Amino acid sequence: MKFKDFKQYFSESRVNRYLIATGNSSSKAVRLYKANLKISQAFHPLLGVFEVVMRNRINDILVSHFTDPDWIINQKTGFMSDPSLRFTYKRTGHIKTNVFLKSEINKAEKRLQKAGMPITSGKIIAEQTLGFWTDLFEVHHYRLLKGKPIQIFNLLPPGHGRKEVNEELNKVRRFRNRINHNEPICFSGNNIGFTETLEVYKSLKNLLNWINPEIIKLVSDIDRVVQIINKVKKN
What we know:
235 residues; mainly alpha; two-stranded antiparallel sheet; two-stranded antiparallel ribbon; 12 helices; 4 strands; 4% strand
């Protein structure tokens, strides 16, 4: 592909960052862009495993907490509608209500209805984004759930609690969104660098280890993140 076409298809503003980092070399910029895709690709197995394990473990814990296998549907009128979720927006003084969780479930139900599929708790759970599950660790919902979500992490280090876990979760969630939108993960400022990416990799492995180290062992043979980053560094 001619470089002018590459810039047109992938946008000049996006490609320019790769050009700057490679000394304005069009061939090196394209190689770096593709390298960025390869590193993003390498993260998907770990991210996918983490998301599945996290949602399944949280579901197990909340099924037990509410004594209800259909809590994700029934709690739309439960903790997801608690009066404490109303707050005053500081910038305007207007009263708002945090309906994020309830809204996400309603959206999932509508998608299933549109597809002619039955609405079941299992399908609703599978439809939820990582953002839905990480939001359970934000202060407002965490308190309403009496801190139950933290129970998925059986092996937290001393001194670690909701705050530390939430920081790691948000780091991983934001990174996941970046690679899903084909954003660059190979820069430190305007230079090629992987410090932030490797920090997220560490956070992801921390979270999995805190659930069960056997998960890391399970996927160790397909985890190629560091290997691919090192290969990109050499080039």
